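step 4 of 6: structure.
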Amino acid sequence: MLTEEKVKQSLDGVLVPGLGRSLLQLNLVRSVTIADNRLNVTLASAALSSAVQDWLKAKVSDVTKKLPGVKEAEISFVEVRPKELNQIGQVVAVVSGKGGVGKSLVASLIALSLARQGQQVGILDADITGPSIPRMFGISDRPTGSETGILPVLSRSGIEIMSINLLLPHEDDAVIWRGPLIAKSIQQFWEEVLWGRLDCLLVDLPPGTADAPLTVMQSLPLSGVVIAFTPQDLATMVVRKAVKMTQMMHIPILGVVENMSYLSLPDSEKRIEIFGPSKGEEMAQAAGAPLLGQFPLDPELARLCDQGDIESYNSDALAAFAEAVATAMAIPVKKGG
Amino acid sequence: MLTEEKVKQSLDGVLVPGLGRSLLQLNLVRSVTIADNRLNVTLASAALSSAVQDWLKAKVSDVTKKLPGVKEAEISFVEVRPKELNQIGQVVAVVSGKGGVGKSLVASLIALSLARQGQQVGILDADITGPSIPRMFGISDRPTGSETGILPVLSRSGIEIMSINLLLPHEDDAVIWRGPLIAKSIQQFWEEVLWGRLDCLLVDLPPGTADAPLTVMQSLPLSGVVIAFTPQDLATMVVRKAVKMTQMMHIPILGVVENMSYLSLPDSEKRIEIFGPSKGEEMAQAAGAPLLGQFPLDPELARLCDQGDIESYNSDALAAFAEAVATAMAIPVKKGG
């Protein structure tokens, strides 16, 4: 017998052009009704251009007419804002007091770890004046959209990404905006991007404790933050500011991550602590949260980031990190996912 | 014969308590009149507490009465705002698009180079949410002041420093401010701090192209900017944004400085290019300005910065840098200064 469930299953095979995620993943199926072998499917039009809507109409009609028991299929669109369609399990911001401690790297590695465990993941690049996420993932596609919203861009391993750099004519154009405009664009990335259904959305914040972090902490429903730092005293001093800010905003700290812990010399077992001895345990204590990982200063990783190929990265440190992240976020670990 | 010049010479020996720079250096001597062996000295009271004013009155009276030809000395104070007293030769901002590229380090090394060449130098730490200058110079003294202004703090080698961190109860307190407040505090550091007479004031900007850099570029009379970067592609992409911003604001770029160019291995001649091959020439070309220096990732320098002892730093790279900076700023190099 024809059921709503079976219709939805068939719609899960219909990928939205220009993004590559299904109607179900994007939560675009608003209603399915069946009466006398007549099928009615209502889809949300959010962020879909009229050309994409036409294409989807024909495609959904084709697919559903092949289902046993369907004689006629009527596909219609209803306007719904992305904000009302987005269903996001956890929103996690990655913060640091000081710049250059590998905050974007940590956000990317968390996203990567979760995606490899079979989670649906997105990254909202809130570093409006210094975005580095698209470069690390090798993405330069311009996002598509309509008057009602914008579609994220999908990375090679299926991570949804939105960054101001994808919207600029040239990636090195400067965004010379004061706080209110920056805050507004972050809110747009949250409300007007069709993220759809995600297990986790990572938010890559700019360094410091000014407008952008404040906007994110005040207006996004954060499940928690992860704090990135390097062993340099100077950096840990400034990171303590970020810890204090987070605590003042009553947001849970899920964990801390140390970057540039050490340099492994090629052709030797020797490690050099370039920025001094590890501050991992000290910072974990200061933040009242677990140390999720310690990453070395790794020329290979730097090269992958520069080449837009971070998704090829594999290391023992990353494997251990992925487990720690899953535990901190209370996510069941899928082996070999 | 008693001349105004001789009186002023004697006042150059009177140091303002709590700062350690002379009345002349701070431009506090407003007028000196001599008539019938009676001397009148008018001093500006800007940023001086009443206790300091009393002390100076007595001290200046003592000193001038010892001059041949002075029978009576009357010392009075007049209220003048620091803004009207400050006489600053060049204002140079150090910028970067991305954080963590050693921007504060470059600002400090320029200041150090100029001071060693006998210049009077100050550093305005405009990185309000992530200040690192006081830590690098090992300064934690609280600045003193009055209702009309505030005195900077002097480093061991005589560099005037003002930073939000000197005004916070604890150095790791978070400054959770939106752009307008940050802009206001930078303007206060410019207008209400008694810098006095300086050859050069370095402004350490936060990363990015948002409120703080915009405020500095719009409201401070910048002679030019120096741009700091690391060889990582990602960093140079974001630095190009800073170059574009600077060009759009019609501010000359005095030069570019590469940090973390390479790591010199201890006990060997080998260099590791951790962040990839040098981008020095490429960035100099992009900025249309000379490459002023290339600094290695130096664990010894990182240690000195963490210990607040950056003023002890010496290296061949720094010596070459000092000459390049003097040339770029058209300053006569004093050998052994």
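step 5 of 6: annotate
 - Chain B has eleven helices and 15 strands.
 - Chain B touches chain A through 58 residues (CB under 8 Å).
step 6 of 6: archive
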